[in-house]
Amino acid sequence: MTKTNAVKNVVIAGGGTAGWMAAAALAKLVGNNINITLVESDDIGTVGVGEATIPPIRTFHKLLGINEQAFMKATQASFKLGISFENWGDENTHYIHSFGATGKECWAGEFHHFWLQGKALGINNPFGDYCYELQAAKAGKFAFNQQNPINYAYHMDATRYAQFLREFSEPLGVKRIEGKIQKVVKNPKTGHIESLILNNGEHINGDFFIDCTGFRGLLIEQALHTGYEDWSHLLPCNSAIAVQTKSTSETVLPLTRSIAHKSGWQWRIPLQNRVGNGLVYCSQYMDDEQAKALLLSNIEGEALTEPRIIKFKTGRRLKGWNKNCLALGLASGFVEPLESTSIHLIMSGIIRFMRLFPFNGITNHAIDEYNKQLKSEIENIRDFIVLHYKVTNRDDSEFWQHCNAMEVPKTLQHKIDLFKQTGRVFLDDGDIFRVDSWVQVMLGQGIEPNQHHLIASMMSDEELTRFLHGIKQQIEQRVSQLPSHHEFLKQYCPA
After folding, report:
1. How far is the C-alpha of 134 from the C-alpha of 139, rounded, in Å?
2. For residue 177, what is the enclosing H or E element?
3. What are the residues facing 327 on neighbouring strands?
4. Rounded distance between C-alpha atoms, residue 185 and residue 197, angstroms
5. Could you give the CA distance from residue 78 to residue 51 in angstroms, rounded to a whole number?
6. Among 163, 133, 138, 160, which Cα is nearest to 149's?
7. What is the signed CA dihedral for 442, 482, 268, 408, rounded to 10 degrees?
8. By Cβ atoms counted within 10 A, which residue in 105, 186, 263, 367 is the most buried?
9. Could you read off the pLDDT of 100-122 as tens digits, one per residue?
10. pTM score, two decimals?
11. β-pairing, 239-246 with 308-311?
């Protein structure tokens, strides 16, 4: 392939979290070799509710050299140690899916085998008692230092995050152009995108285009007709309603709350200065007015915004990279926000693209590799989220009866059956969730394995009792020394 196809000018269509994350990463890590232009319109609002993250965002920030305290102040962020799932496995039950490692493992089996062996001996402590992050979250405590590491992510204001990244990117040479995209111009021979025409008539030419135009997929779908794989039969929720409220207490928990209801679930995300609330539901079982009434009757504190309805279709674009266009964020697909994976998918898409960056021209091999990895990653996330709906004892509404009856992907069914029968979890290549995550959710939703690995019986009953007690005691001691999450925020990064 000749140098004439070299990618020198990258145009990002759309701002928001996806657009500015792409701009920031490209400018910081590839910037010397390319020109980056971002086109966005102040008139087009972003969804702006992706307020919870998972731990790999810290790696992304380290890569970019972003100062954690500056970022947290600017986005009024708080720390997140996991998600509290309430009323999922059954009504009036709850468990925490935390970011921590539970217990200690050995070559043949993860810690849950030892925990199951302990249960057989009558040691009935909950699985979560052996996880430091989970116990800190429950106690509303947080701190870190080199002697006492902790695995965490953030809750943040997504609109402020985009603004923070814009301020980070522009000094690195990213050129922002204000305007609405009127037309996408394609080369009649190759079908590649050549330029964007704005509503003021301006032409923005580029060698490569990144579509961050949200659900509309202005470039990837409307111009390139990439196609979409609909997952509504697996993830029936298709609507969300979001509202922000004033904090009602000093206590900012280092946890996202996910509270299941008769036709979906409600989120509560505590920031330093306010709370993000939303209801995710299936319009087949609940209309918008009912959803609005349910959400407003289940919030604490005064509403700061008008409730906003967001319609979506879960699924994925058939290709995340098509010709000379990469789709990021909602333009590339949407798996509902139950496990806070939206920002993660933007981040991993950007990093994957930079690793395959077409400096000397676009090749089909690079496109195929990108799309293969994306498919594996997003399908594994999909399976993990479907798990929450499928493995439940709830049948108190048509919605939950539908979830109980639905056929799930073979990949997920295999994971569920394997855990039920053997207590084992094996990860697939594209799995972003660790064994610990799968185990916490499967146990939390009510699966009791029929057997466990007998490596755990190599210990005598006394040894196992001492082993389990020692881990639990050490965690209790560490948690007792932590300040409250609220105190730590006030000292570390007050907004």
Report:
1. 9
2. strand 175-178
3. 211
4. 7
5. 10
6. 133
7. -10
8. 263
9. 999 987 777 789 999 999 999 99
10. 0.95
11. antiparallel
Distance CA 474, CA 41 (A): 53
- Alpha-carbon gap, residue 395 to 411, rounded angstroms: 24
Mean pLDDT, the chain, integer: 94
Total residues belonging to the chain: 495
Residue 468: is its pLDDT beyond 80? Answer: yes
Q: Which residues contact 93 (CB under 8 A, 6 or more apart)?
A: 86, 87, 446
Please give the sequence-ordered ranges of beta strands (E in DSSP) within 31-150, or none if there are none.
Answer: 35-40, 78-80, 82-86, 94-98
Q: What pLDDT score was predicted for residue 2?
A: 36
From the number of C-beta atoms within 10 Å of its C-beta (0-12, 13-18, 19+), residue 93 rates as: middle
> How far, in Å, CA of 352 to CA of 244, rounded?
34
Q: How far apart are CA 40 and CA 49, in angstroms?
A: 18
The two structure tokens encoding residue 255: 């946890």
Of the pLDDT bands very low, low, confident and very high (cuts 50, 70, 90), residue 393 is: very high
Helix (H, G, I), strand (E, B) or coil at 154: strand
DSSP 8-class letter at 266: E
- Strand 82-86 versus strand 256-261 pairing type: parallel
Residues near 319 by Cβ (< 8 Å), separated by ≥ 6? 220, 226, 227, 367, 371
Structure tokens at 430: 């594209």
With CA atoms as reference, report the closest residue to 218 among 79, 75, 41, 64: 41
- What are the structure tokens assigned to 239, written together? 């609507």
Residues 377 and 341: their CA atoms lie apart, in Å, by 11
pLDDT confidence of 1, banded at 50, 70, 90? very low
The two tokens of residue 133 are 């992050």
Strands (E), 31-137: 35-40, 78-80, 82-86, 94-98
Q: What's the one-letter identity of residue 439?
A: V
CA 233 distance to own-chain centroid: 21
CA end-to-end span of the chain: 51
Q: Which two tokens stand for residue 33?
A: 């070799």
Return the closest-CA partner of residue 224 out of 346, 332, 379, 330.
332
Residue 322 has pLDDT above 80, yes or no: yes
Whether 41 and 200 have beta carbons less than 8 Å apart is answered as no
Which two structure tokens, joined as six digits, stand for 384?
């993990």
CB atoms within 10 A of CB 56: 15
